[in-house]
């Protein structure tokens, strides 16, 4: 992706200590594609496609941080270590394209 009209759009930016390759950020959009909180291949494919398209930073859909509250049944979770392998797979998929990813931590109470 290139743009002469918006030269800053495709220049790197730092978010804290993390450098993002451009300023194209994907906002959180729920997919309901997780399986009992676990990352699925469909989720990996969904976010990989956005990374391949050139997004610099993906902010995931809501991610449940503790088990007592569920928003959508297909939301991702991160409240114990059993979720780590799925997150590793998801992160690796978008990193292939130089894209960064951060979860939208979600607790409504
Ligand atoms: C289907 C759908 C799912 C969404 N899921 C989330 C979500 O998980 N977390 C969140 O903060 N916002 C969510 N949003 C809001 C989007 O992030 C928001 O629509 C997007 O940032 C664009 O902003 P706008 O609607 O004000 O133009 C969702 C929106 C849609 C349409």
Describe this structure in words.
- The protein has 2 helices and 6 strands, in the order βββαββαβ.
- By secondary structure, it is an alpha/beta fold.
- β1 and β2 form a beta hairpin.
Per DSSP, what share of the residues sits in E-state strands of 2 or more residues? 15-25%
The 3D shape can be described as elongated
- List bound small molecules: flavin mononucleotide
What is the tally of beta strands?
6
Total helical segments = 2
Gyration radius, rounded: 15 Å
Helical coverage, percent range = 10-25%
N- to C-terminal separation? 40 Å
Helix-strand layout with pairing:
Layout: E1 13-15, E2 18-20, E3 25-26, H1 41-52, E4 57-64, E5 76-77, H2 84-95, E6 100-106
Parallel strand pairs: 3-4, 4-5, 4-6
Antiparallel strand pairs: 1-2
The chain binds flavin mononucleotide.
The site of flavin mononucleotide (FMN) has 7 residues, from strand 4.
Main features:
two-stranded antiparallel sheet; 109 residues; binds flavin mononucleotide; alpha/beta; four-stranded parallel beta sheet; elongated
Give a quick rundown of the structure.
This protein has helices at residues 41-52, 84-95, and strands at residues 13-15, 18-20, 25-26, 57-64, 76-77, 100-106. With 109 residues, it is α/β, with parallel strands linked by helices.
């Amino acid at each position: 992706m290139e743009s002469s009209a918006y030269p800053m759009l495709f220049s790197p930016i730092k978010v804290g200590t993390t450098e993002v390759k451009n300023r194209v950020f994907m906002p959180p959009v729920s997919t309901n594609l997780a399986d009992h909180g676990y990352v699925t291949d469909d989720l990996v494919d969904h976010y990989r496609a956005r990374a391949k398209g050139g997004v610099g930073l993906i902010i995931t859909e809501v991610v449940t941080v503790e088990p007592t509250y569920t928003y959508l049944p297909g939301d991702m979770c991160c409240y114990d270590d059993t979720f780590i392998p799925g997150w590793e797979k998801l992160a690796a998929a978008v990193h292939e394209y130089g894209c960064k990813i951060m979860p939208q931590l979600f607790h409504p109470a």
